[in-house]
Amino acid sequence: MWQRSVEEHGFAIIPDVLAGEDISRLSGDLADAQLRRSRAGVRHALRNPAVAGLAQDSRLLRIAKGVLGSKAFPFRATLFDKSPASNWLVVWHQDTALPLRNKQEVQGWGPWSVKDGVIYAHAPADALSQVMALRVHLDDSTAQNGPLRVLPATQTLGFLTDDEIHQLSTQVSSVDCVVPRGGVLAMRPLIVHASSKSQSESSRRVLHIEYAACELTADGLHLEVRIERCAILSQSIVIACHSKEAVWLVSPVGKDRFVRIRVTKLCRLFFSLLDASNQLTNG
User: Fold this and answer.
1) Pick the CATH number of 2-227 from 2.60.120.620, 3.40.50.300, 3.10.20.280, 1.20.1250.20
2) Which of 28, 22, 7 is nearest to 59 (CA)?
């Protein structure tokens, strides 16, 4: 089972999680969106309605909850877009920084930094053990287009220094995580991983979504979660919003299948009703 692979080896490849039509729809939504891109892709992607909807899709939540527990939720997403026009490599490392609501000096956390208005701190191993990433592949990941490479079972070693990571890279046989389009790579943040430059003419797009077991860490720090505002109108219709520029009506049309309709004229009315509802509830 893939859950056992995640726990023992730190990663698991789960093919055919999403159908081709899901990937095509998501690709279209991302192409239409006004996304702020860096050389490597898009940070803070949960602010996009299509990404936020996917992150809360039952198929992905089922995987996340299978490892992290029933309260698992998405808190951060990054779109990596490696192509001939935007190509890079990443040296062996661990993912140790978490976004936090505010800065609070707690033993084991730090150093601290601020990027794009978000506070980050390098987290201790016990906090990172409550996190898992699901890498949704929008394209086939092959041995030629710079796939993620991992050093199996290194997540069990805790936080490692740069010298320790380098030494491990010479002692442990790496695994290329070759994943088909629509497949998911589940990985723990402390597994040592890297990627090479692409040697292919094809793109390698990956949506890296991170899930946590709970919002509050054992040290009393709150994760910063920047996801679009959502409201459930009924059991069959959800309105999802991204800022005040668009409203998306989301309605299921079958098992794990949804239709999203962009509606802009309802924006002001929706936010007025939502704010009024919140005032009544809080009042």
Assistant:
1) 2.60.120.620
2) 22
Tokens of 234: 């009924």
Encode pLDDT of 247-261 as tens digits. 444 444 444 444 444
Domain boundaries, the chain: 2-227, 228-283
DSSP string computed for the chain = -HHHHHHHHSEEEE--SS-HHHHHHHHHHHHHS-----SSEESSGGGSHHHHHHHT-HHHHHHHHHHH-TT-EEEEEEEEEEBTTB---EEEE---EEEESS----TT---EEEETTEEEEEPPHHHHTTEEEEEEESS---SSS--EEE-TTGGGG-S--HHHHHHHHHHS--EE----TT-EEEE-TTS-EEEPPP-SSS-EEEEEEEEES-SB-TTSPBBP----EEEE-SSS-EEEEETTTEEEEEEEEETTEEEEEEE-TTHHHHHHHHHHHHHHHH-
pLDDT tens sequence across 73-114? 999 999 999 988 888 899 999 999 999 999 999 999 999 999
